[in-house]
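In this supplementary section we document a worked example of the pipeline. Step one takes a protein sequence of length 201 as its only input; no multiple sequence alignment statistics are reported here. Step two produces a three-dimensional model, which step three serialises into structure tokens for compact storage. The input and output of this example are shown verbatim.
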Amino acid sequence: MAAPVPNKMFMIDIETSGVDPQTEEVLQIAIIEMNFIHGYWEKGKVFDLFLHTDRQPTTKFALLHMVDIYKKCNEAPKITKEEVRKKILDFCESCGVLPPNIFFAGWNAGIFDIPFLAHHEYLLPAKYIDDKLVGDCHYRIYEISGALQLIANVKGHNEINTILKEAQKMSPKLEGFRHNALYDCERQMHIINALIRMIRP
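The serialised model returned by step three reads:
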């Protein structure tokens, strides 16, 4: 089992057909390799996978924001859950990281993305068996919501929306659009870097 690679994490984001993993599908999985260099996270390799579905966008939200994603998913080849997991793990290995030391970051990765992927068996979250950590990804997840809360507290209040708006103003303008998992991964990486800048002397 490989030791953790220092100063490396993976920003993850998924798009789904709905919020209940019992009845809904994963449409897109995006991951960005992030390397901590000179005090900030820098973008490395990119993983972007659209999974096949026969569904069409029907909700108002999907019709407004996800028509292109559904089109790509309708055209994507069918692959098994084992193939999806292998693609994710192969990508992480190409970045120099092996399970269970794959450290993920995300907007709400610990309560949504990772559990949703685990339900569909696209990832096996880490757990301890006989005092040994096993699984694909580490249980420690860099939650951006937690980082926002911490910065708000450092600034003497508890209002994370103010901090988020400030971080977004400090972030570079990106090509693409929200509600695309790859775009959201990069946007979230820049939000983390903005939070670092806020409290750096």
